[in-house]
Amino acid sequence: MPFQIKTIQPKFAGEVFGVDLRQPLSDSDIDAIHAGMNKHAVLVFHGQQMNDEEHLAFTKQLGPVQTNAAANVIKAEERRLPLDFSDVSNLDKNEKLLARDDRRRMFSLGNRLWHSDASFRAIPAKYSLLYGHVVPPKGGDTEFADMRQAYDTLDAETKAEIEDLICEHSNLFSRALIGFTEFTDEDMRNFKPVLQRLVRYHPAMDRKTLFMSAHIGGIVGWPKPKAMAFVRDLMEHATQRDFVYAHKWQQGDLVIWDNRQTMHRVRRFDDQKYVRDMRRTTIMCEGPTVAGQAA
Question: Which pLDDT score, from 0 to 100, does residue 1 have?
């Protein structure tokens, strides 16, 4: 079957057929994937029996890899995967389920909030590529919200109000929303807030999007209560069901999403009973959304 993308109706994502991601892809296939990402923002590749080396090699064909250094509370000696990967699992380095009260598990529960990957970095993520090594039999779906539709359906007054707003993003803010506040001095240094525009422009599609995330903890120049109440209203608007595609994982799925055009979250599952071994690589954006920030 030749390379083709089928829209997942009635939502915005696309299913890709006719490609084996274990093999080096032609320039035309790579161009087709980028074009598909521009159009759909989420692409689903079923039945990809990949190892980590093949996953990483495919990622590098799409752009520069953003490493996972200082992105979470996992210590170097606790790592299960190399720094090129984000370990989006409920396993320790010995392939055992994380204990209910494990600090790493508590921190990872923040992934159940709507967010954009690496928005807490001065140079945020472009694409995320998540591969399902082992998926639970129930729950653990990933939902994606289309931030293009979210922006387009705002009224003109709100669009004018948010056009030049700058938000503060940090893992400190998203984890505080779920009650995780036991941060070390090292965490405080690693998760120092960065600035991101609330409205982004996507040049390939010639359209604007909202840049939303649970990592938002304030708006520059606004009192915090006013800012967070406003962000909450925008979040409710941006995640209404008409804007959401829910992906039910099958083992061997690889899903790519564009963090410039979407938010996402993982749905609840019994992580004390079932293994969910998901491994993510990330491609970084070309630069910061707010000029003058050091990477």
Answer: 63
Looking at 63-179, list the stretches that DSSP marks H as alpha helix, in order from N- to C-terminal side. Answer: 103-108, 147-152, 156-162, 171-177
Q: What CATH number matches the domain at 4-284, 3.90.550.10, 3.60.130.10, 3.40.50.10420, 3.10.290.10?
A: 3.60.130.10
147, 212 Cβ separation under 8 angstroms: yes
List phi, psi (to 5°) of 228. Answer: -75, -30
65 DSSP β-pair partners: 283
Q: What does the alpha-carbon distance between residue 135 and residue 137 come to, in Å, rounded to a whole number?
A: 7
Half-sphere exposure of 8 (CA within 13 A, CB side): 21
DSSP-derived secondary structure letter, 88: -
Q: Which helix (H) or strand (E) holds 130?
A: strand 125-134
Rounded to the nearest angstrom, the gap between the alpha carbon of residue 192 and the centroid of all alpha carbons in its chain is: 19
Question: Residue 99 carries which DSSP code?
Answer: P
Residue 41 sits at the vertex; the CA angle it makes with 234 and 46, to the nearest 5 degrees, is 130
- What would the two tokens of residue 189 be? 């240094």
pTM (2 decimals)? 0.96
User: What's at 256, amino acid-wise?
Assistant: I
Tell me the C-alpha distance between 131 and 86, whole Å.
11
Q: Which amino acid is at 92?
A: D
For residue 212, the model assigns a pLDDT of: 98
SS3 223: coil
Greatest alpha-carbon pair distance for the chain in Å reads 56
For position 72, what pLDDT does the model report? Answer: 83
Tokens for 291, please give them: 């000029």
Task: Give me the pLDDT at residue 295, please.
Answer: 52
Q: How many CB atoms lie within 10 A of CB 277?
A: 18
Residues of the chain with pLDDT under 70: 1, 294-295
What beta strand segments (E) does 137-288 contain? 142-146, 166-169, 194-197, 199-202, 207-210, 216-219, 244-247, 254-258, 262-266, 277-284
